[in-house]
């Protein structure tokens, strides 16, 4: 992988957990020298063994960039200490909340010329270095939250970090950032927790029916409660307003349900339609507009290289497949490959594959 210029080296990642170790892996993969430090030294060692950098101490005078990837509560203290310990290094952090840590640093009178906060909008419900992924940030948004005291070279160093991790840079004021993540990250996490929490009271024989729907809605609720308690607490003021708006939606749902029970399904249909409209507003890949995928299922004979032939046929036709899943028929010696393609090209794909001799089932 080619090195992108201007990430000041060596880089020191403080907090070698899921995000820190992923930053280390991405930078190491891009050819940069990375050192790792963690309050739990075993985390730094595990991250190093996974290719995130070196767990050996670094000469403080040489450090070019410090990436602080610790939980939100200790974050400002760790940033302040890093500015003292590494006198020529630029410092950033990847914390999920941006206003409170900045306020804490400003209140402590820290000189912030060498610090600017940032936040990669990529993560996982898993914690610790074992969840590290060098491609975590690939084509994901990474928010840079500038403040008036940040020196231009500091901003440039963090821009270079984002580029080296192959993410897409977005600039936002810290307050604006916290308002946005309250809506697109923190509130969704709380709502997932509401649904998942209610599952603790569902009998096991009912849970046995769980399909993909409930898994999709609850996955993020599996995140580390110790981390999320800190994220939510540090953005609690903004979230209070979001919860009030949600309560209003909830009340509308109650009324719509009562009306539906009385044979008047109009407002329930409108409520559901609004939900669907919301899903369509979420940007698609590469930050582009939402794209509606259409699914088709191809029967794959249990024969040598059947999958290879299918992908050759798809590739020869110049078609782009967005996602695939494979299921095996329990009774016949065939498998079923589900292909997600752009809705508008589905008829073309069906026609081409049928012509090439494949048995294609469509949902219609
Ligand atoms: N989890 C996500 O999806 C996600 C995504 C983007 C940003 N973030 C942010 O990234 C940061 C790290 O989150 P994570 O998911 O990697 O958590 P994690 O629990 O996987 O890792 C945190 C690491 O920090 C270490 N640590 C804690 N206090 C420390 C201290 N004072 N000094 C040095 N090391 C310390 C822990 O031992 C742990 O290894 C948080 O601020 C979080 O808000 C998380
Ligand atoms: O994918 C997940 O598991 C996440 O929750 C990642 C997620 C998000 O809400 O998108 C969570 C918190 C972070 O601050 C950034 C990213």
Automatic annotation (TrEMBL):
Cross-referenced Pfam families: PDH_C, PDH_N
Entry keyword set: Amino-acid biosynthesis, Aromatic amino acid biosynthesis, NAD, Oxidoreductase, Tyrosine biosynthesis
Gene3D superfamilies: 6-phosphogluconate dehydrogenase C-terminal like domain, NAD(P)-binding Rossmann-like Domain
Residue stretches making up the Prephenate/arogenate dehydrogenase domain: 9-290
UniProt keyword annotation of Manganese present: no
Enzyme Commission identifier(s): 1.3.1.12
Pathway: Amino-acid biosynthesis; L-tyrosine biosynthesis; (4-hydroxyphenyl)pyruvate from prephenate (NAD(+) route): step 1/1
GO BP field: tyrosine biosynthetic process
MF term (GO), any: NAD+ binding
Family: Belongs to the prephenate/arogenate dehydrogenase family.
NCBIfam families: PRK06545.2-3, PRK06545.2-4
The name this protein goes by in its record: Prephenate dehydrogenase
Species lineage: Bacteria, Bacillati, Actinomycetota, Actinomycetes, Propionibacteriales
């Amino acid at each position: 992988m080619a090195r992108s210029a201007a990430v000041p080296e060596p880089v020191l990642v403080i907090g070698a957990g899921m995000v820190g170790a992923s930053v280390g892996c991405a930078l190491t993969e891009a050819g940069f020298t990375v050192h790792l430090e963690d309050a739990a030294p075993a985390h730094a060692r595990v991250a190093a063994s996974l290719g995130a950098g070196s767990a050996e101490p670094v000469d403080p005078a040489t450090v070019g960039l410090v990436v602080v990837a610790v939980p939100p509560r200790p974050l400002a203290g760790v940033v302040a200490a890093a500015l003292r310990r590494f006198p020529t290094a630029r410092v950033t952090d990847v914390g999920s909340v941006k206003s409170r840590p900045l306020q804490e640093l400003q209140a402590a009178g820290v000189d912030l010329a060498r610090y600017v906060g940032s936040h990669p909008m990529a993560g996982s419900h898993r914690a610790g270095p074992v969840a590290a992924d060098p491609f975590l940030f690939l084509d994901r948004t990474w928010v840079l939250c500038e403040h008036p005291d940040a020196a231009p070279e500091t901003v440039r160093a963090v821009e270079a970090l984002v580029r080296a991790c192959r993410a897409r840079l977005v600039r936002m004021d810290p307050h604006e950032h916290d308002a946005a993540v309250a809506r697109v990250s923190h509130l969704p996490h709380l709502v997932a927790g509401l649904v998942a929490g209610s599952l603790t009271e569902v009998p096991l024989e009912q849970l046995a029916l769980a399909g993909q729907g409930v898994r999709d809605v609850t996955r993020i609720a599996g995140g580390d409660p110790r981390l999320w308690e800190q994220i939510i607490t540090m953005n609690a003021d903004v979230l209070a307003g979001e919860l009030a708006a949600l309560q209003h939606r909830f009340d509308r749902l109650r009324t719509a349900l009562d009306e539906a029970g009385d044979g008047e399904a109009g407002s329930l249909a409108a409520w559901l339609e609004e939900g669907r409209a919301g899903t369509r507003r979420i940007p698609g890949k590469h930050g582009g507009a939402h794209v509606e995928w259409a699914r088709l299922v191809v029967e794959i004979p249990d024969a040598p290289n059947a999958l290879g032939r299918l992908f050759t046929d798809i590739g020869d036709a110049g078609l782009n497949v967005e996602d695939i899943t494979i299921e095996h028929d329990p009774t016949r010696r065939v498998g079923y490959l589900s292909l997600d393609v752009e809705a508008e090209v589905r008829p073309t794909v069906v026609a081409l594959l049928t012509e090439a001799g494949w048995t294609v089932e469509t949902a219609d």
